[in-house]
Amino acid sequence: MEQGFVDTLISPEGKLEVLSKAEVIKLLDTGKGGLYKMFRQCALAVLNCGSTIDDGKELLDRYQSFDINILQRERGIKLEIRGAPAIAFVDGKMIKGIHEHLFAVLRDIVFVSNEVTDNPKFDMSTTEGITDAVFHILRNANVLRPQTNPNLVVCWGGHSINRAEYNYSKEVGYQMGLRALDICTGCGPGAMKGPMKGATIGHAKQRFMNGRYLGITEPGIIAAESPNPIVNDLVIMPDIEKRLEAFVRTGHGIVVFPGGAGTAEEILYILGILLHPDNAEIPFPLVFTGPDSSREYFNQINDFIGQTLGEAAQRRYKIVIDDPETVAREMLEGIKQVREFRKSRSDAYYFNWALRIDEEFQRPFAPTHENMRNLKLHKNQPVHVLAANLRRAFSGVVAGNVKADGIRAIEEHGHFEIHGDVSIMDPMDKLLASFVAQSRMKLPGKAYTPCYRVIK
């Protein structure tokens, strides 16, 4: 089934039904300033949902004949698609959730290009300007819901997890769904799909008909983590840093399931923000959880955090092993505190304006060989800045593992070299080696060749 190809013509349903001639020209422009390459890659990733491919380069190579065109008609636009993965269709008709996602891709790419990237209103050299841009992208996608009490739980975790961990993430999602909590994830497979799948059952049992399954992704990772069709709100952020900021600005609490380098990156991101002195008093429930078989995994994560960021970082989260109900209750109770805190300050429930996010966490990091080699991984700096640099190191490993550009860079120039103090390199090397040993870098059944070398 996965190898089949389908040609089709589809119309939008409520998302970006009309485009200007200039927008169409830019979307179909294959030149350097055009958007076609990004549009094609994101569209192909959306259509590849449910596949076993987690390699952006492999996906693009397999579907070289895939093409997408925009047709201007009297009543609006249509998408002409050729060579689409058959997995996106049932009896020749595109799955409705995937259909919606295609037009969400179109909406976000057009909006970011026209209203953010080329708009002098957003000063992307300041933290306030970047946060404002994140807000406007989310508002344009209609995912900011005023007049709603806080109830959105962000779930992080790996796309490559085993069956026991996947089933556990589903059970946690179910328990949160029973408590009318909504779910936000990176929208891909594994620990991003499980909580959503579980929550749909919990919501259905409680006759909670407006359950939200928010997926936030970015063009670099989407090919490796195709959005699952349970997602009923999909947002494509411009880069990984704005994607991470979108998670922590919209979510009211975070649950972390087992994962690999990408999950470590997310953990370091949120801990670095929470360790900033300006955020010391801001409530933000953060729980690490997994089945009993994942106990050692979280011991390793906890040890790594203790050895690199210290006890202050360890105090910002709780570890709950093999107890989905306790996780759901912790989130419910933590989000009540978030609500009281924001209510007392007249802060918005739908966007966490109060959280201070340092420029170190906002500036896009290009994981080139030179940038990876020059990362400042030493303890002679504020702990939240060290967290930002560690986050970049893991971001580079993710790029080398699954992102098309990163994979090509590794093929061309060899391993990324990661340098730093021995007190940091030793625990980092140990943690990455454990991810490799536990098959957390690639989907099960795929051989993993490391893209990095830790230099001590």
Automatic annotation (TrEMBL):
Residues 335-455 form the Pyrimidine/purine nucleotide 5'-monophosphate nucleosidase C-terminal domain. Residues 9-115 form the Pyrimidine/purine nucleotide 5'-monophosphate nucleosidase N-terminal domain. GO terms for molecular function: AMP nucleosidase activity. It catalyses: AMP + H2O = D-ribose 5-phosphate + adenine. Its EC number is 3.2.2.4. GO terms for cellular component: cytosol. SUPFAM superfamilies: MCP/YpsA-like (SSF102405). InterPro entries: LOG_fam, LOG_family_nucleotidases, PpnN, PpnN-like_sf, PpnN_C, PpnN_N. It comes from the Bacteria. PANTHER family: CYTOKININ RIBOSIDE 5'-MONOPHOSPHATE PHOSPHORIBOHYDROLASE, PYRIMIDINE_PURINE NUCLEOTIDE 5'-MONOPHOSPHATE NUCLEOSIDASE. NCBIfam families: Nsidase_PpnN. This is AMP nucleosidase.
